[in-house]
Amino acid sequence: MTGGFKDKLGEGGFGCVYKGKLRSGPYVAVKMLSKSKTNGQDFISEVATIGRIHHVNVVQLVGFCVEGTKRALVYEFMPNGSLDKYIFSREGTIPLGCKKIYEISLEVAGGIKYLHQGCARGTLGYMAPELFYKNIGGVSYKADVYSFGMLLMEMASRKKNSIVPTGCTTQEFSHMYFPIWVHGHITEGKDIEIEEGTDEEKNIAKKMIIVALWCIQMKPHDRPSMNKVVDMLEGDFESLEMPPKPFLYPQETLVVDHGLSYDQTYDFTESTSSFGSTINEHTPLNSV
Ligand SMILES: Nc1ncnc2c1ncn2[C@@H]1O[C@H](COP(=O)(O)OP(=O)(O)OP(=O)(O)O)[C@@H](O)[C@H]1O
């Protein structure tokens, strides 16, 4: 199917992805999962669940392979590749305009909202309350909201949420960490710099950033549901409330005179979907 794994599309947290072609004609992306500890039956049950997910903004699973300890997932092929090449300008690529980026962010949010609603399938009375009432301790849902917030921040600002170097002072940290910087900037009533951006585009970027700032609140409880995120993105910029200043670490771990202390971390690892990529790559929580 992959012709000997010769066309590597990329690599994610779960393994490498190769381009393949089904005998019936269409191209596919084959994700080779790193060595699995679960048995084949568990994998097939998980795949059966994922296979029931159908949404225009969620890549469709079209098949799977199990052979010994090897596992592979087969997805429909996305010819345009990863979003990052359309957000950050690189040689040979044309970055998308502000409105298009906004539309894509809305569609991504719609896809995650669908996944969160789909995960709550079950019979009322047997379903755990946190699956039904998403606001009571649904940490896994809110972890996805955080990841989406980081992505949204990157999409609006065209800046990578890069890791802040260790050893910097709290003041240096506040200037270097974009979400904190931009929070101060908007609170002071300043515009978001967009090259040749119209007023409408500046407002769209501001709206995306305010929603992103809500999504990346330190406490999961303070983050909105994906339902609310979609509403906020679709609504007017003027009707949005400014969120509290974001923190990258739980506040009690900040040691003001000696830079940052990393001894307590927050568990953001639980996730219901594969939208965890931004968190794995760009937050230092996993690197401490
Ligand atoms: N369906 C697909 N069609 C085309 N390319 C794909 C497809 N799925 C993945 N890729 C390519 O493979 C890369 C790795 O994808 P993968 O889904 O494994 O990881 P990720 O989403 O980048 O991160 P994570 O594993 O943390 O979710 C992507 O960045 C993309 O370039």
TrEMBL record:
Ligand binding (ATP): 31
Record organism: Quillaja saponaria
Keyword Ligase: no
Cellular localization per UniProt: Membrane
This protein's UniProt keywords: ATP-binding, Glycoprotein, Kinase, Membrane, Nucleotide-binding, Serine/threonine-protein kinase, Signal, Transferase, Transmembrane, Transmembrane helix
GO MF annotation list: ATP binding; protein serine/threonine kinase activity
Name of the protein in its database record: Kinase
InterPro entries: Kinase-like_dom_sf, LRK10/LRL21-25-like, Prot_kinase_dom, Protein_kinase_ATP_BS, Ser-Thr/Tyr_kinase_cat_dom
Transmembrane portions of the chain: none
Main location class: membrane
Protein's membrane topology: Single-pass type I membrane protein
GO CC, alphabetical: membrane
Domain Protein kinase: 3-288
